[in-house]
Amino acid sequence: MKILVTGGTGYIGSHTCVELLDAGYEIVVIDNFSNSQPDVLDKIKMITRKDFKFYKGDVCDKEILQMIFKENKIDAVVHFAGFKAVGESVIKPLMYYRNNIDSTLSLLEVMNEYNCKKIVFSSSATVYGKPDKLPIKENFSLKTTNPYGATKLMIEDILRDLYISDNDWSIAILRYFNPIGAHASGLIGENPNDIPNNLMPYIVKVATKELECLNIFGDDYDTLDGTGVRDYIHVVDLSKGHIKAIEKVIKDKGVDAYNLGTGRGYSVLELVNTFMKVNNVKINYKIVGRRPGDIDACYADPSYAKEKLGWSASLGIEQMCKDAYNFIKKIEEM
Ligand SMILES: NC(=O)c1ccc[n+]([C@@H]2O[C@H](COP(=O)([O-])OP(=O)(O)OC[C@H]3O[C@@H](n4cnc5c(N)ncnc54)[C@H](O)[C@@H]3O)[C@@H](O)[C@H]2O)c1
């Protein structure tokens, strides 16, 4: 089985490439390195001791996609490529709509052309907006509060419409909660070049003194300690979810969405305190005002993914904190 992985040198994509290769799949990767580094390719090969084809290119570009499908017999696609920063999407909405929607349309058109109709798509818990109750189930109403989320919701609609038009498609929409952590080897992980948007990369940069202090946005939320609660999931667990989703789309036709989360929420302070404890390191932080658009709490009901995909998360918050720090320390040693 040959799987095309778009955005395969990115954070979740690289971990999923490792899991796919370890599970015995052949992979072909495309990425334009807009948010990743070429050396990730060697790291994936070092971890797995397996080789694969890579194409440097833009998924919006139909010509390179046609070349990939012509040169390789692709059985299914895992589509990660896209921009992902909520704040940036508010400032540069056109860039987000263009990249995320255009890449998906180009990909689906070329897949159709080559009669490859199995796809796993990276959606996000952001499509639930501010949920009325918790935990979040897949059948909750969908709404978003920012252009990034709108691109995810639009793509979900495109995929559902595509299936309605042609029942030969097999489509798994994976709604990720909050992936953190890194591969146990410490070779791949999340290391944004800019000031991080997400909590864990920020904590890590404060731990290594690259940044001075962590701002915690609000301690007056309706949660146990007042700080926001999220469903953090180890990126390796999340990546294993893609293997189950690939198995599903290979086996069954249809379109369906699955929450990939642990089902357990942790507050910002719980995460910071766990990080300090397991890594024996100090994190300077201060409480600042709420960030517009943030919600009190968000965590998944992951039972549908367990029932339909046979997947559930197994790694805990302590492992997530250890692995995230181990990855960054390895980079510093190099
Ligand atoms: N990390 C999260 O917290 C999170 C949560 C929910 C959903 N997601 C979604 O999961 C997917 C992967 O996220 P990630 O955290 O690995 O992000 P990432 O930025 O690390 O990876 C995305 C990869 O896609 C590449 N890319 C972007 N646009 C491209 C294009 N037009 N052509 C070719 N390559 C392109 C980037 O260079 C990068 O390597 C994204 O679609 C993201 O929206 C991420």
Can you describe what's shown?
It is a single chain. With 334 residues, the chain is of the alpha/beta class. It has a domain at 2-181 and 232-261: Rossmann fold (3-Layer(aba) Sandwich), CATH 3.40.50. Helices cover 42% and strands 18% of the residues. It has helices spanning 11-22, 39-48, 62-71, 86-91, 93-113, 147-165, 199-207, 235-251, 268-279, 303-309, 317-333; strands at residues 2-6, 26-31, 53-56, 76-79, 118-124, 170-176, 178-180, 214-217, 229-230, 232-234, 254-260, 266-267, 285-288, 297-298. Strands 3-2-1-4-5-6-11 form a seven-stranded parallel β-sheet, sandwiched between helices. The chain has a three-stranded mixed β-sheet with strand order 12-9-14. A two-stranded parallel sheet has the order 7-10. The longest helix has 21 residues, at 93-113. The protein is globular, with a radius of gyration of 19 Å. The model has no long low-confidence stretch (mean pLDDT 96). The site of nicotinamide-adenine-dinucleotide has 28 residues, from helix 1, strand 2, helix 5, strand 5 and strand 7.
Short structural description:
The protein is an alpha/beta fold and 334 residues long. The protein has helices at residues 11-22, 39-48, 62-71, 86-91, 93-113, 147-165, 199-207, 235-251, 268-279, 303-309, 317-333, and strands at 2-6, 26-31, 53-56, 76-79, 118-124, 170-176, 178-180, 214-217, 229-230, 232-234, 254-260, 266-267, 285-288, 297-298. The model has no long low-confidence stretch (mean pLDDT 96).
List the helices and strands and how they pair.
Elements: E1 2-6, H1 11-22, E2 26-31, H2 39-48, E3 53-56, H3 62-71, E4 76-79, H4 86-91, H5 93-113, E5 118-124, H6 147-165, E6 170-176, E7 178-180, H7 199-207, E8 214-217, E9 229-230, E10 232-234, H8 235-251, E11 254-260, E12 266-267, H9 268-279, E13 285-288, E14 297-298, H10 303-309, H11 317-333
Helix pairs in contact: 1-2, 1-8, 3-5, 5-6, 7-11, 9-11
Nicotinamide-adenine-dinucleotide binds near residues 13, 30, 32, 60 and 198.
